[in-house]
Amino acid sequence: MLLKTRDEHIWRVRPEADQRRRFTWQGGAFEIGRRGHADCVEGDISSDVHLVMATLKGGAQLHEYVTDEGFRFSGSDRPGYVSYLPANCARKLRLKNVCWEWAAIALPVGGGLRLSEKPFTTSRDDFLFGMLSQFQALYDNDSALDVTYCDTMTLALRTYLVHRSGVAARTAPRGKGGLTPRQVRDVTAYIECRLTGHIRITELAATAGLSEGYFHRAFRQTTGQSPLEYVNRKRVEKAVALLTQTDKTVIDIALDTGFAGPSHFARTFRSIMGVAPQQYRRSL
After folding, report:
1. What is the DSSP string of 56-103?
2. Least CB-packed of 122, 129, 216, 267 within 10 Å?
């Protein structure tokens, strides 16, 4: 299974997929592939573009990967699962007992928005899965894609990925009053390490070396979210992984992700995912 950009192979996976088709335009590329059953698939992905990938049908009993920066994932792969690999981030992977249909969109670096440099794990994301499924349906129906449609949808995709990461890193210079890139890295790293506990705005402000009031305004200006909105979204992302990959109760997951209780967890989860935690788990 080889996905090319500018005649460079960036996916090296064996055995290769049974079927693979690809459509390119100036602003990106779309590819779909199908694979019959294989006991084991191994290889690596390395790319100078951003990759968004989704499992459309089937899946794998076990999907393991590690990036060159040490980011790891180990779990099952099912329809609706998506993952993101930023440009210049290599991933080694291994799949066991796999039979699937997948889709991928490649986005060149640039394009008006600088996307996150942090990959995310194989998890459910209705927006990304819906977009890739729509691309696949149109491509299967017409054997081609409308370039204007592709440009419009990939702009929406870029915007969504920026907000999903919680760091709206625009290519335009940072406006007066925003956070510096280093402040953003320090604050988001602090949040990641303390998701299970109580995170105070005063602690975040101190991490950035700012007053509480100034930090709150600067964080929103830089990310497009308040600190609380960003923290809640990160907690829900972790909850999604626990709902998907473990048998923990909703109450335990609420506590493990730093929410005050099941009711607070359910309200926040629904506001972000559109369904209650138990409904989300049943949908799997």
Report:
1. EEEEEEEEEEEETT--EEEEEE-TTEEEEE-TT--EEEEEEEEEEEEE
2. 267
